[in-house]
Amino acid sequence: MYIIVVGGGKVGYYLTKTLVNEGYEVLLIEKNPKKSAVYAERFGSVILEGDGAESTTLEAAGISRADVVIAVTGDDEDNLVICQTAKKRFNVPRTIARVNNPKNEELFKKLGIDVTVSATNLILNIIEQEIPERGLVHLFTLKHAELAIVEATVGKGAAVAGKPLSAIDFPPDTVISAVLRDGTMAIPKGDTVLLPRDEVIAIVNRASEEGLRQMLTGA
Length: 219
Prior knowledge:
Layout: E1 2-6, H1 10-21, E2 25-30, H2 33-43, E3 47-49, H3 55-60, E4 68-71, H4 76-89, E5 94-98, H5 105-110, E6 115-117, H6 119-130, E7 136-141, E8 147-153, E9 175-181, E10 184-186, E11 199-205, H7 209-217
Parallel strand pairs: 1-2, 1-4, 2-3, 4-5, 5-6
Antiparallel strand pairs: 7-8, 8-11, 9-10, 9-11
């Protein structure tokens, strides 16, 4: 597998170092001459000095045979241009972009970027998991951004507690995918009754996350 990483900041540096150590064929593109020189001493020929947002640089990197392009510069606009160029002009199968402003994450996905990584949202997810009273944890946003996978614990005072799924009027575009009870995971059916302390994993429209949280937690 051939992977091109664009952006030689801390993220790009340590990502390249890890991928090289794991045996992948990697090329790191960095436009700062001083950084490129330092990295070349450490990594050797896996460094290319140039602007990864320019097609000529990507061509020099051999992008036509790349399996993955990862854009991790500090500029969202550059990361978007790099990934779109890789995807649409050079037909790279997989693109991954760092998103510095979480407000841009949905836009990136709508414009065809395969995977986006927002440090802000990752930190928020960790915080949610460490605060039990938060109730509903956003686990993952699906590719098209309108849907998300979430997890919640059924509260004692929740309206859904003691009711079978078939009798519960969930928000639109909600699918209860799994129920964890006493350490056992089960795929629920219409007659599955939700009990307090059940852990529920659901696919839900992002606009309905808050409504689903209130239903399941009673808060």
